UniProtKB/TrEMBL annotation, chain A:
GO cellular component, as recorded: membrane
Cited InterPro entries: AAA+_ATPase, ABC_transporter-like_ATP-bd, ABC_transporter-like_CS, P-loop_NTPase, PstB-like
UniProt name for this protein: Phosphate ABC transporter ATP-binding protein
Keywords attached to this entry: ATP-binding, Nucleotide-binding, Phosphate transport, Transport
Pfam families: ABC_tran
From TrEMBL, chain B:
Highest taxon of source: Bacteria
Gene: pstA
Entry protein name: Phosphate transport system permease protein PstA
Provenance organism: Alkalicaulis satelles
Coiled-coil regions listed in the entry: 195-245
Gene3D superfamilies: MetI-like
Main location: membrane
Length: 271, 579
């Protein structure tokens, strides 16, 4: 294709902090929707047990990148993914990988809270049940409790587990879907603008939660809030027009951006 | 110039117009709804009113003597023997016993016309079940003939009674012939009425003749002229004849075209055949005899049957008999249970919707069993799994087209494929159900797809996001949310099939079937009909009693439909979940 003849967009890499395990590694990752290029040959190494923030103006391909990691793009008829993305060195786009298994390993929290229209308990128990993670009802109860506790929701819902999940407030719903994601014990958690619909207090709660989850999981979050990215993440990736412009430790991206576009974006000059 | 102020006035001026437009639109909407409700009320009201005569039925109770020799011809009391008994004759004899002076064959036929021999089967069944009845007398109740029933309900015959104005003397003649004579002009009122009616009729005939003559003047074509000429001539001649008979000096001969006159006196009923010119005497014959003696009777009744014999299906004699039976307390009106417990019959009083109802239930069962799983399955596959390409697009377009295919085409298909090729039985609920399922499929598929489409994609993403397979996502999350919509669509499709007639005519479900199909597995291949076809059949039946029964059957069908739709609404409410 004519496009392939063009040089790959250059990415500015900051030196990564030493001693970090690479969990997710993307290279030459491109996505097209029909004819339109949404992600242009992205290469990026995401460390384990840390939070990686994806920032960039609207429509630059952040969600698309996230959806590559758990192959949610499979559900979009027109999406064509090329290039490679590896989790622990294992190729995700390989034919031998079952997306169902993959999604059990890579949990996802969507931009808008989307609990099932079932009870709070059922919301959390659904994943473990279909994957057969609990041998007995007691075990399932325990999984539900620990997941809700980890998501910081247990205290609020302990006495109303059988009320519909949709009856919770927006912030509670978002924490409920986080609990649902961690109930299947994933290795990577993807969060697409998890706080976009929340007030500052609920946002602070979720951020706290993200910080706690970092101890056990690799988290990749998309956010439009520079402050949030600065607060919660260790690594930051700046996307622009489908290309990864700059990637490195959060501190360095925010204090010493090397690309003009990154500089403009984080200082609020566009986007 | 103050611009903001001018903009404001302009907006305000427009605002008034906008409000007016809105009010006008609301008024149109309300008016449209009122009109629709009024039409619906009119429709249901008129059906209700029309069905009233079918809600009750008159029954006659006779004491039937079960003579051993006649009921048990072989004399061994075996079932086979009892089944060959002369029940019909026994019932007819019981009826005859009520009116011993009826002897003439034609008259007997008239008398037995009050009773339909189909009833004998019921007496037979009773005796077979309880052979100890043989040799005794049983009280047997059966619905009276439909024409007598309509007479008793007062819907088919206009009549009036007046006390005899002056004493009358009755002289017995030969056989049952009698002569009535009085000092005063006792038949004055009757003759005046008859003359008035005849004059009116003659006037109408003359008008008709004038119209035909006027048309004749304009007509050119020879054949058409001939038709008008004949009509004018005929009407003129009839009117002339009527006017001739109106001559004051002539006696009144009571024919089939003019009201009948019966005279009730001391338990006897006399049918008057002609009234003398002086209106003081008349001749007639006893329909129900009683000893009357030579003396003058002052207590007697002039009973005018205003509907002429030609305008009714019940004869003067039958009216007299039925009236006497009612006087004797042998007829009683009650709720028309036959309408719900009997299958179709040529005799309206014995016709019911049970056969059609069972046929409808069996047919709908087949339709549901085929259309709902196949339709919902197809919808799920097309909506959730099928790749979106040319082929699926083509299929989608064709499904939408199928929904618009006239239903009779499906009937033709059923006839050609299921009956002629596969050799399935005609008139059977099985074939009817298959044909209606084919007809209903597009509706089910389209509504199910719409219901599936209405489930927000975020639910699918949520399920897939925790690692559910596509099938799990669909069956655990999408389908339960779409269920109310799918259910509503399916039930509406079934209700539509329930009211369908045309395709069933093609596969022979229009046949006259006197036995209700059995409610078991065998019933699916037995000949049967369905409710809408039954309504169609009754609506084209000649007997007047079927008119009300048609309306009643429509009510039954409507009730069925309303309960189906109510079930749809209930299930919808029950399963509806918010997200
Ligand atoms: N399902 C789709 N079909 C076609 N094009 C799509 C689809 N999803 C996204 N795109 C296109 O791909 C590009 C990247 O979209 P993406 O959703 O990844 O942006 P984003 O960075 O997440 O934006 P935002 O911050 O607004 O969420 C956009 O131009 C968008 O129009
Ligand atoms: Mg996005």
């Amino acid at each position: 294709m004519a496009y392939d003849a063009q040089p790959a967009p250059a990415t500015v890499y900051h030196p990564a902090p030493a001693g970090m395990n690479i969990k997710v590694a993307a290279s030459d990752l491109s996505v097209r929707y029909g004819g339109a290029l949404a992600l242009d040959r992205v290469a990026m190494d995401i460390p384990d047990r840390s939070v990686t923030a994806c920032i960039g103006p609207s429509g630059c391909g952040k969600s698309t990148f996230l959806r590559c990691i758990n192959r949610m793009n499979d559900t979009i008829e027109t999406a064509r993914v090329s290039g490679s993305i590896r989790i622990d060195g294992e190729e995700v786009n390989d034919r031998s990988i079952d997306p169902v298994l993959l999604r059990a390993r890579v949990g996802m929290v969507f931009q808008k809270p989307n609990p099932f229209p079932k009870s709070i308990y059922e919301n959390v128990a659904y994943g473990p049940r279909i994957h057969g993670l609990a041998a007995s009802k007691d075990e399932l109860d325990a999984i539900v409790e620990t997941s809700l506790t980890k998501a910081g929701l247990w205290k609020e819902v302990a006495d109303r587990l059988h009320q519909p999940g949709t009856s919770l407030s927006g912030g509670q719903q978002q924490r409920l879907v986080i609990a649902r994601a961690i109930a299947v014990n994933p290795e990577v958690i993807l969060m697409d603008e998890p706080c976009s619909a929340l007030d500052p207090i609920a946002t602070a709660r979720i951020e706290e939660l993200i910080d706690e989850l970092r101890e056990n999981y690799a988290l990749i979050i998309v956010t439009h809030s520079m402050a949030q990215a600065a607060r919660v993440s260790q690594m930051t990736a700046f996307f622009h027009l489908g290309a990864l412009v700059e990637y490195g430790p959060t501190e360095e991206i925010f204090t010493n951006p090397r690309d003009q576009r990154t500089q403009d974006y984080i200082t609020g000059r566009f986007g | 110039m103050n611009r903001p102020a001018s903009i404001r006035t302009a907006v305000e001026a427009r605002l008034a117009r906008r409000h007016r437009a809105e009010r006008r639109f609301q008024f149109y909407g309300a008016a449209a709804i009122c009109l629709a409700v009024a039409f619906l009320a009119l429709l249901i009201g008129s059906i209700l009113i029309q069905s009233v005569p079918a809600m009750t039925t008159w029954r006659m109770t006779l004491q039937v003597e079960l003579d051993r020799a006649a009921i048990d011809p072989r004399g061994d009391m075996s079932e086979a023997s009892l089944r060959r008994g002369g029940y019909n004759a026994a019932i007819q004899q019981a009826l005859r016993d009520q009116f011993p002076d009826v002897e003439d064959r034609a008259e007997l036929r008239e008398l037995f016309g009050l009773y339909s021999s189909v009833n004998a089967a019921r007496l037979l069944n009773r005796v077979v079940q309880d052979p100890s009845l043989v040799g005794g007398t049983v009280s047997f109740t059966f619905p009276i003939d439909d024409d007598a029933d309509l007479y008793l309900k007062g819907v088919s015959v206009r009549e009036s009674r007046a006390p005899g104005p002056a004493p009358v003397r009755i002289q017995a003649g030969e056989g049952r012939a009698v002569t009535l004579s009085a000092e005063a002009r006792v038949f004055d009122a009757f003759v005046d009425d008859v003359r008035e009616a005849a004059r009116e009729r003659a006037r109408i005939l003359e008008q008709r003749a004038e119209r035909a003559e006027a048309a004749l003047a304009d007509a050119i074509d020879r054949d058409i002229r001939a038709i008008y000429e004949a009509e004018a001539r005929r009407a003129r001649a009839q009117a002339e004849r009527l006017r001739d008979r109106l001559d004051e000096g002539a006696p009144v001969v009571i024919g089939p075209q003019i009201p009948s006159l019966l005279v009730q006196v001391d338990g006897a009923v006399i049918r008057v055949s002609d009234v003398s010119a002086d209106r003081r005497s008349a001749r007639g014959e006893m329909v129900i005899s009683a000893p009357l003696g030579e003396a003058a009777h002052s207590d007697w009744t002039l009973w005018t049957i205003e509907t002429p014999q030609a305008g009714r299906l019940i004869s003067d004699r039958q009216i007299a008999w039925v009236d006497a039976l009612r006087e004797r307390g042998m007829t009683r009106s009650g709720f028309n249970t036959e309408l719900f417990t009997y299958a179709d019959s040529r005799e309206p009083e014995l016709a019911g919707v049970l056969g059609a109802l069972i046929g409808s239930v069996l047919t709908m069962f087949v339709t549901m069993l085929l259309a709902v799983p196949i339709g919902v399955g197809a919808a799920i596959y097309l909506e959730e799994f099928a790749p979106k390409n040319r082929i699926t697009q083509l299929i989608e377009v064709n499904i939408n087209n199928l929904a618009a295919v006239p239903s009779i085409v499906f009937g033709l298909l059923g006839l050609a494929v299921f009956i002629n090729t596969f050799g399935l039985p005609r008139s059977a609920p099985l074939v009817g159900g298959i044909v209606l399922a084919l007809m209903t499929l597009p509706t089910v598929i389209i509504s199910s797809r719409a219901a599936l489409k209405a489930v927000p994609p975020s639910i699918r993403e949520a399920a897939l996001g925790v690692g559910a397979s596509k099938t799990q996502a669909v069956f655990h999350h999408v389908l339960p949310l779409a269920a109310p919509g799918i259910l509503t669509g399916s039930i509406i499709g079934l209700a539509q099939a329930l009211g369908e007639t045309a395709p069933l005519l093609m596969i022979g479900m229009v046949a006259f079937i006197a036995d209700a199909p059995s409610l078991g597995l065998a019933g699916f291949t037995e000949p049967s009909t369905v409710m809408p076809v039954q309504i169609f059949l009754w609506s084209s039946a000649a007997e007047r009693a079927f008119e009300a029964r048609t309306a009643a059957a429509i009510l039954v069908l409507l009730t069925l439909m309303v309960s189906l739709n109510a079930a749809a609404i209930y299930l919808r409410r029950r399963f509806e979940r918010r997200w």
